[in-house]
Amino acid sequence: MGEEITSYEIPLRLPIIDFSHKDLKRGTHEWDSVKVEVRKALEEFGCFEALIDKFPLELREELHGALNEAFDLPLETKMLNVSEKPYHGYLGVHPERSPLYESFGIDEANVVENVQGLSNILWPQGSATFSKLIQYISEQQLGLERMVRLMILESLGIEEYMEEHMDSNYYLLKLMKYAGPQSTEAKLGLYGHTDKNMMTILYQNNDVNGLEVRTKNGEWILVKPSPNTFTVMIGDSLYAWLNGRLHSPFHRVMMKGNKARYTTALFSILKAGYTVKAPKELVDEQHPLLFKPFTFDEFMKFLHTEAGETSDCALRAFCGVKNIT
Ligand SMILES: O=C(O)CCC(=O)C(=O)O
Ligand SMILES: [Fe+2]
């Protein structure tokens, strides 16, 4: 008797990890079990969905409205959001590279005044609602980023580096809009890339999906966040610092239909001059050093060279690494 084999397609989904326990405190049983899941998900996918406390629906709608209003402002007003650092201010659509995408940036978003600063630039009297909402969401994202970071370090037995990590990072908050392409065929919202920073916490503000993450096997997963999940993702800097222990996933945004998509992303980035060098605890015979020590600024400069722009994996090209499994 032959065994009956049913073949069915298993829709791939990112792991969902529950961060909503009231007593998710260091040293508790809950913390330790979430930590194990985090490590597993980040080794395999480099990202996961974190279920957080219920996000009140009114807040979500208000935030959606506030973002809508901000992106509807005249281009001259939006362009007042400037920064000395490249890519940290307003970025308008790029006709070839990203015709649907535009974003605002708030540098050092962990400083309350900086979040309020953007609303004062955009509206003559500022907008208390906008600042309150952006402030709220970025605080939630920041809290989660720090928790995940500590879990990662703890799970590798190197939590003593947490303070150094916190001292060497700053946070950039990006508010992003992807216009609906007015077509049923998927169009590129954001070109495929790996994040170059340490870690990214994404919040999709409305129910328009579009983020796709490529697995190690080359399959694309469409991320379908719920109103109460943040997407956590590892960037190349942390990947290098961890000597390749966790994965930094290739991802892109594809858009369909006519509804715009809004996301709010918190990027933790290394401060200028800080050297990314894997700690001695993560380098041994079985795990030889994968990347030469580098500063984030050097890496960013390389990204803007021809070799950096054309390479599939800029980090490997930058560090002269041929093949990593
Ligand atoms: O909007 C998203 O979901 C992804 C954005 C992204 O990948 C990025 O800004 O690096
Ligand atoms: Fe990204």
Give the topology string: H per helix, E per strand.
EHEHHEHHHEEEEEEHEEEEHHH
Radius of gyration: 20 Å
Number of strands: 13
CATH architecture: Sandwich
Reading side by side through the largest sheet, how are the strands ordered?
1-2-9-6-11-4-3
Overall CATH class: Mainly Beta
**Helix content percent band:** 25-40%
- Uncertain residue ranges: 1-8
Give the count of helical stretches.
10
Average pLDDT confidence is: 90
For the record, give the distance between the C-alpha atoms at the N and C termini, rounded to a whole number. Answer: 41 Å
- Supply the number of structural domains: 1
* CATH homology group: B-lactam Antibiotic, Isopenicillin N Synthase, Chain
Which shape, going by the Cα principal axes? globular
Biggest sheet layout: 7 strands, mixed
**Helix/strand class:** alpha+beta
Percent of residues in β-strands = 15-25%
What binds here, in terms of ligands, is:
2-oxoglutaric acid, fe (ii) ion
CATH topology: Jelly Rolls
